[in-house]
Amino acid sequence: xxxxxxxxxxxxxxxxxxxxxxxxxxxxxxxxxxxxxxxxxxxxxxxxxxxxxxxxxxxxxxxxxxxxxxxxxxxxxxxxxxxxxxxxxxxxxxxxxxxxxxxxxxxxxxxxxxxxxxxxxxxxxxxxxxxxxxxxxxxxxxxxxxxxxxxxxxxxxxxxxxxxxxxxxxxxxxxxxxxxxxxxxxxxxxxxxxxxxxxxxxxxxxxxxxxxxxxxxxxxxxxxxxxxxxxxxxxxxxxxxxxxxxxxxxxxxxxxxxxxxxxxxxxxxxxxxxxxxxxxxxxxxxxxxxxxxxxxxxxxxxxxxxxxxxxxxxxxxxxxxx
Length: 322
Fold this sequence. Notes:
eight-stranded mixed sheet; globular; Alpha-Beta Plaits; four-stranded antiparallel sheet; Ribosomal Protein S5, domain 2; single chain
């Protein structure tokens, strides 16, 4: 029995679309920041008395028809380790599920770490990231802390994540504004597939995202919050432009999402460097300096309560709790 904890990550350079659906190899490389506030704890026990894998999420048994990705990851671990037994998986999400806050990233990263160790494997981070990727693409980045790059690659062996800057010693954080905790209507996978197939701008997205990735890595090296924020914001909006230009058109925004964007523009006009990013969900993440958080919260407070505003700092990579 092994318990592992993995934190969510928020992509600053987005991954949106798969080159290989089976191996979950992306159409482009991406880069993220791991956050300390949102995480998943997962315990895996291989048990000879089990006749099938069982998965409990937040103490509720998940129906077998909804656990195919979990079983797939466990099958990969069994194939690599020689473990023959089925597994009992108990997972607790300290992040809303399917609301665009990367619960699948922390979930499958924690699963990969706990399952491999419980099966007797001792893998390095790169190898763990490849296994986590087979459950959820973004999970490959949650194996590590800080700023993390997921190399696109073109095979199972070459598509993996590695840290760019694990120890972050400069003033950067992320204020998440929770506007909805419900499961999103259009999953990330469905949204990606539609965008790749039908958006007339998809090729431009791929070419411009490569440039964004090069530039943001330079911003990280220079510890330049303004450049990092500007690149992250424009990359996020390009990704969401793909959903708006898909056929049929769809969006992950809601009215509050747009309201928060307007607040951020207003704050910048007042001299506060802050920038928004959004994944596949309506919740908005504001990239800013920790020293500016009180002012930002003060500006947002007329429309958003304190329990909707969650401050997250750079988080660590996978850890083991036993």
